[in-house]
Amino acid sequence: MFKLAALPTISARTLLSALTVTALFSVASVSHAIPFLNKNLPTDKDAVLSVGVNAMAVKSAYDLEDSTDVLVLPGAFYDNNRVYLRGAQAGAYLINDGTNQLSAYAQLAGNEFDPDDANGNLAGLDKRKASAAAGLSYQRRTPIGAFRAQVATDVLDRSGGNIARLSYLARISKDKLTVYPSFGFEYHDEDYNNYYYGVSEAESARTGVDTYASNNSLNPYINISANYDFNDKWAGFANQSLSYLPNEQYDSPMVDSRTQATTTLGLLYKF
Asked: Which of 12, 27, 103, 113 has its CA 20 to 30 A from that of 21?
């Protein structure tokens, strides 16, 4: 017999991870098995794969000797109405009828804190590593733009935390230039914030940095991306994002800025 009392031992992180992995690997069979999914857009056999390289400048909110880190990373973009790649995010559509999009996705997530680059006693803290998040995303297209809700969890268990995002997205096109402005709020739970911004008693005893424990937070953000087609094969893109740290993160002794910004410039080749 099933024991209902055992159900609460399944964490939200475990449940969401299981749902996401199942969706990512079974989306094709599900789309044929459920009748209403037949209303989905057909697979775009002419979908273009774009690959390239981008230079990313990340201005961290951490108290570092040099708060700006420059990275050179590969990038890829592809969407055939069944699966997609968007830079550091990959996903599979469960529903995609042109108006409603429900997908399972995975992406890079979290921040990097290297104590070797930190100021003062912060140099004695433990390293914080970026992670990978997986979750579910729902987007609704309307005449005034799109609205998107996402929820994801740390599948590498670096923080063991959960994040969520609510966004408004628009698209503005003129000739070869397309601009994508968006803004919204991102939710970080207590586990996420304590890993990236908390200071444990052991760290405090070792370094003299005050202990700090955080709560859940809601971060407003704004983002603008642009794509310019030079010709049929080459395109350039740029992205600027800015996130505001609420008190739950800003009050951490690891932090010295209210904002975190990322600037990206890249070049893509279309196959």
From this structure: 113
